[in-house]
Amino acid sequence: MATVTRQIKDLRTPIICVMGHVDHGKTSMLDKIRGTTVTDIEAGEITQHIGATEVPLYTIESLCKGVLPGNIEVPGLLFIDTPGHHAFTTLRSRGGALSDLAVLVIDIIDGFQPQTDEALKILKQYKTPFIIAANKIDRIPGWRVNPSFSFTKTFESQPDNVKNALDNRIYDLAGKLSAYGFSADRYDRIRDFTRTIGIVPISARTGEGIPDLLMVLVGLAQKFLEKNLKLHVTGPGVGTVLEVKEDKGLGYSIDTIIYDGEIRTGDTIVIGGKEKPIVTKVRALLKPMPNRELRIVEKFDHVDRVTASAGVKILASDLDKAMAGSHLRVAREGMLNALIKEIESEIERAKIVTDET
Ligand code: GDP
Q1: Is the omega angle on the peptide bond into residue 309 within 30 degrees of 0, that is, cis?
Q2: By alpha-carbon position, which residue is closest to atom 11 of ligand 1?
Q3: Which protein residues touch ligand 1 with a CB less than 6 Å away?
Q4: How many angstroms separate the CA atoms of 95 and 92, rounded?
Q5: Would you give the end-to-end CA distance of the chain in angstroms?
Q6: How far is the CA of 285 from the centre of ligand 1 (A)?
Q7: Rounded Cα distance, 138 and 241, in Å
Q8: pLDDT score of 43
Q9: Closest CA to 114 of 135, 87, 133
Q10: What pLDDT digit, counting tens, does each position of 152-195 carry?
Q11: ipTM exceeding the 0.90 mark
């Protein structure tokens, strides 16, 4: 019993992957949660990369204004924002593979679109639990805006015809989901979230429903993490390389997600390289400030240690040949040769897949 309590206290930050069709509101939703305006600066290159933002529990508590249950032990949520464009399916499936939970954003007016289908196929393939954020409820004709209200509160204040219009759209989404074999319903009508997919109506523009979305996510994440204690915040770190970058003044660095264990400056790490595994020493760990994007370079904290799950930029030598998508492993005492072999066989497998396609 004592062990279980200790483990629950050490819960990892769960990884939440945000997916959905382009323009359905992924970035706006994250902006509303972290209090930023990435949508404004996103015009160019950063949409093409996977982003990561750590949203601490205090931010979630302040957005949830009393609707959050008192027994929350996850330290926060790490949101992974996957590119919306069709050409980035591979990147997106990688995002889907490394997440504990996903939010599939669907524009409630626009409904199912090609990338919605794609995301569902990926979630099904990787058996990732997910919820639906039915976004843009403020665009339902006649909607009365109550900025930042919980969904249940704002729904109460709507006229009957608006309530019906919203519910019809939810039924429609649930119908489409059933074609994929998923049973789904409006979240506040669900008893067992492990059997039924929760649909949370939100507006990323007005903030309505954001408290409900976070409450459901935190509750579900905690439940899944308590059950699945295979990954920890201690022990040698394991992660995925999202991107290899050359930054002015910093040299080559890698943006990574550490999803298991911990990594410290001075650690020896093994990463997949273009030809062979790269063995190098961590020179510096740059962690984005809370509520800030890993892709946006200015706001980093230099830290000595990072625990799972976290997005972190790693500086080390020999990173120019590192491969995005490969694994990263921290080698502690006596582990190095085995890890090199493991990463070698990963590179071989990747080569076979590339040759076949
Ligand atoms: P993404 O491509 O999925 O990241 O979508 P964005 O967040 O960039 O949103 C696409 C467009 O929809 C932008 O013009 C947003 O301002 C708009 N938008 C996003 N969420 C909402 C919403 O809840 N209500 C309304 N009315 N517009 C929204």
Answers
A1: yes
A2: 23
A3: 20, 22-28, 39, 84, 135-136, 138-139, 203-205
A4: 5
A5: 50
A6: 33
A7: 38
A8: 46
A9: 87
A10: 999 999 999 999 999 999 999 999 999 999 999 999 999 998 89
A11: yes
